[in-house]
Each structure stands twice: as C-alpha cells, then as structure tokens.
C-alpha cells in the first residue's frame, strides 16, 4: 500500500533533494533510512539496559527468573543484596519486550535493494540500495564542483 504525504518543506531543501535525484526516490530513501536508524537507536538503548541488568545479576533474564521462582537460597541472597530486584526485574523484562518490538518494526521497513520488507511482501519504496544512491549523489556533487 502506498500513502501520499503532504508536508511543508522549505524550498531550499526541496531544491537540494531534487539535485540528489528523483524527488520521490530520494525522499523515500531518506524516510526509510530515518525509520531504520530510529528503530536501531531504540533497540540499542533497550539492549544497553538489558546488558546492565545481566551484569548486575550475573545472569540472563530467563535464568534469573527461573532461579527466583525455584531456588529459595538464591531468592534470599537476592533479597539481601538487591532489595530493589523486583523493580529491576520488571524493567528488565520490559526492555527485553521493547527491544523485540523495535526489531519487529524494523523488519517491516522495505529492504534497501529490492523494495521488500523482511517478510518478502513489497513495500512502497522502489529505489535501489541507499548506499548506491549516496554514491551517485556524491559523484553528482563532485562533477558539479569541477
């Protein structure tokens, strides 16, 4: 499904985008790149917090949760050494779910080379590889600068 956006953009930015190539192709590639970068930023932020808890409790969440539920000695130790462990565990699982949610969102972004998302269904972007687009843009600017 294709959606047409109507957004105000400064005229000088539109002219710059036109200089980079087909306005629709360049804009779609920029939106795709922005969406992917944002997803990756959110995944990395969640994973940093997950790593913090894994280090703090010397365990992954699944093992930690299993031991809290089945090992009384471990639970006593955690209550003594980490009195806020329940709040930590709540945030820990939230961050795991958050990272997964952003991974799933990133998989819906059309593939850069085929205009398809990870599931193989076609997206709305029909441009080629973003990096290839960047190379073409760089070459265009070099030729204009001469």
Describe the 3D structure.
The protein is mostly helical and 146 residues long. The chain has a domain at 26-106. 71% of the residues lie in helices and 0% in strands. The protein has six helices and no strands. The protein has helices spanning 11-20, 23-56, 61-70, 72-81, 85-107, 130-145. The longest helix is centred in the N-terminal third of the chain and has 34 residues, at 23-56. The radius of gyration is 23 Å and the shape is rod-shaped.
* Main sheet summary: none
Radius of gyration based on Cα positions? 23 Å
Large-scale geometry: rod-shaped
Would you tell me the overall average pLDDT? 81
Q: Uncertain runs with pLDDT below 50, 5 residues or more?
A: 113-146
SS element count, helices: 6
The helix/strand order is HHHHHH
Distance between the first and last residues' Cα: 42 Å
Helix content: over 70%
Strand content: under 5%
Number of strands: 0
Name the structural class: mainly alpha
């Amino acid at each position: 499904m294709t959606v047409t956006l109507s957004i105000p953009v400064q005229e000088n930015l539109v002219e710059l985008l036109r200089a980079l190539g087909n306005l629709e192709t360049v804009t779609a590639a920029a939106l795709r790149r922005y969406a992917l970068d944002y997803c990756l930023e959110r995944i990395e932020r969640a994973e940093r917090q997950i790593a913090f808890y894994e280090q703090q409790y010397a365990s992954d969440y699944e093992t930690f949760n299993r031991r809290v539920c089945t090992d009384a000695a471990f639970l006593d130790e955690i209550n003594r050494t980490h009195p806020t462990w329940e709040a930590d565990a709540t945030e820990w699982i939230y961050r795991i779910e958050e990272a997964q949610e952003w991974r799933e969102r990133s998989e819906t972004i059309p593939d850069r080379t085929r205009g398809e998302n990870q599931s193989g269904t076609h997206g709305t972007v029909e441009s080629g590889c973003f990096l290839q687009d960047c190379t073409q843009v760089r070459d265009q600017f070099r030729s204009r600068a001469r």
